[in-house]
């Protein structure tokens, strides 16, 4: 065979084993053939089909997961456990027939795809023009609708400046390994954290009204949708008003009712009362679900109240109210015209109370074995007219409001004598 330049020979691998091949070149000159030296030997090993299946069947791997969501980015890797180099790779989507994902073989064994629907995938490798691997086993990638978390707020979505809130990004899904991020919705989404966190709760301090959203990430590329925005309305912290009934100036032992008046529509408040001494002193060991408190006056002091809803929702303290406690007054009972009279005489009892406070009602008592009221109830006037019948002691007292009583006056004895009978003789 006379050829100029390189010479080629095609052979078909038929028998298993290793065959040594060499080549030599001849040149005809002056009617004689001159041969070159033999080439270096080349070993060609032919393996059985079963061996080829074991060594030349790639494995298709998927990162990060084989169950993903619409729009997630996946990396397919065609893993070929063989030492030979120079392979090119192709990936296929398994539908009714194999559909190449790339128009030709690529030099790299990885391919990035965007998940759109559930399908199976395979890959193969090529070296040279005729050295093909088998197709890999198919790998099924399940594509689900992108999940959407729910943003929950505790304790309330209407709160007050400075209140502490907990945002929870609730994802109803069985897969684990999610990372979470929260966003404040302004003109654009503003992350509340610099990166995704491995907990689905976030504590924030309320400052102003805004909307919030959250999302979740699994792996490097598997994102959920954003949650629906939740509006958190932040209002100025309310301030209750402390009211005192019946009066803020009372007497030792009087019963008072404190009312913590909160003009707000929200319900579920608990209330606290404080006595202001050198420091605030709780009047009750725990919060009460009623806004009234009954106390017995003992000494002059200031009082305040506040309200709590949930664990972190506090009002301001009310303005302090000063309750002045005075020594219980003692009226003086006076009798007009005299304390020694005759049967049938008319007397006026006056319950004299030296107090600047008004609104008193009065009652008189006849002192027998026990106090006997002379009137069925307290009267608006401090005088009472009686007709003398027999010797007895009398006392009086006064009442203001429902619970503010004076002491009893000292008893006054009225001596009643029989009427003198004059007999005239003519």
From TrEMBL:
Q: Which residues form the Ig-like domain?
A: 58-142, 147-233, 238-324, 329-415
Q: What superkingdom heads the lineage?
A: Eukaryota
Show the PANTHER family listed in the entry. FC RECEPTOR-LIKE PROTEIN 4, IMMUNOGLOBULIN FC RECEPTOR
The keyword Manganese appears for this protein: no
PROSITE patterns per the UniProt record, alphabetical: IG_LIKE
The entry's protein name is Ig-like domain-containing protein
Q: Name one GO biological process term.
A: immune response
* SMART domains named among the record's database cross-references: IG, IGc2
InterPro entries reported for this sequence: Ig-like_dom (IPR007110), Ig-like_dom_sf (IPR036179), Ig-like_fold (IPR013783), Ig_Fc_receptor (IPR050488), Ig_sub (IPR003599), Ig_sub2 (IPR003598)
Q: Which GO terms describe its molecular function?
A: transmembrane signaling receptor activity
Does the keyword Signal feature in the UniProt annotation?
yes
Entry GO terms, CC: external side of plasma membrane
Q: Which UniProt keywords apply?
A: Disulfide bond, Signal
């Amino acid at each position: 065979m006379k050829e100029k330049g390189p010479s080629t020979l095609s052979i078909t691998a038929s028998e298993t084993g290793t065959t040594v091949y060499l080549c030599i070149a001849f040149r005809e000159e002056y009617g004689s053939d001159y041969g070159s030296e033999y080439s270096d030997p080349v070993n060609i090993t032919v393996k059985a089909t079963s061996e080829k299946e074991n060594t030349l069947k790639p494995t298709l791997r998927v990162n990060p997961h084989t169950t993903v969501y619409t729009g997630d980015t996946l990396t397919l890797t065609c893993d070929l456990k063989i030492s030979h180099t120079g392979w090119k790779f192709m990936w296929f989507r398994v539908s009714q027939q194999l559909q190449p994902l790339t128009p030709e073989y690529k030099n790299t064994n990885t391919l990035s795809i965007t998940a759109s629907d559930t399908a199976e995938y395979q890959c193969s490798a090529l070296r040279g023009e005729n050295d093909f691997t088998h197709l890999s086993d198919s790998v099924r990638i399940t594509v689900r609708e992108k999940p959407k978390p729910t943003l929950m707020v505790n304790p309330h979505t209407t709160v007050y400046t400075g209140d502490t809130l907990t945002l929870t990004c609730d994802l109803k899904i069985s897969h684990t390994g999610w990372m979470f991020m929260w966003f404040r919705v302004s003109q654009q989404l503003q992350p509340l954290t610099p990166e995704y966190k491995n907990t689905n709760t976030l504590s924030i301090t309320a400052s102003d009204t805004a909307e919030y959203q959250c999302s979740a990430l699994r792996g490097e590329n598997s994102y959920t949708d954003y949650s629906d925005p939740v509006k958190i309305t932040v209002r100025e912290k309310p301030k209750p008003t402390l009211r005192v009934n019946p009066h803020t100036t009372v007497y030792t032992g009087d019963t008072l009712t404190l009312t913590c008046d909160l003009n707000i529509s929200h319900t579920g408040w608990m209330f606290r009362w404080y006595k202001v001494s050198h420091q605030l002193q709780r009047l009750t060991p725990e919060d009460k679900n009623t806004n009234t408190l009954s106390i017995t006056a003992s000494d002059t002091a200031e009082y305040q109240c506040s309200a709590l809803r949930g664990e972190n929702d506090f009002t301001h303290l009310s303005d302090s109210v000063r309750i002045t406690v005075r020594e219980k007054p003692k009226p003086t009972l006076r009798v007009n015209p005299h304390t020694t009279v005759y049967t049938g005489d008319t007397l006026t009892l006056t319950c004299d109370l030296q107090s600047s406070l008004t609104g008193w009602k009065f009652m008189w008592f006849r002192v027998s074995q026990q106090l006997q009221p002379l009137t069925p109830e307290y009267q608006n006037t401090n005088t009472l007219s009686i007709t003398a019948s027999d010797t007895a002691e009398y006392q009086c007292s006064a009442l203001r409001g429902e619970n503010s009583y004076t002491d009893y006056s000292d008893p006054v004895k009225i001596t009643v004598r029989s009427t003198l009978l004059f007999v005239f003789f003519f």
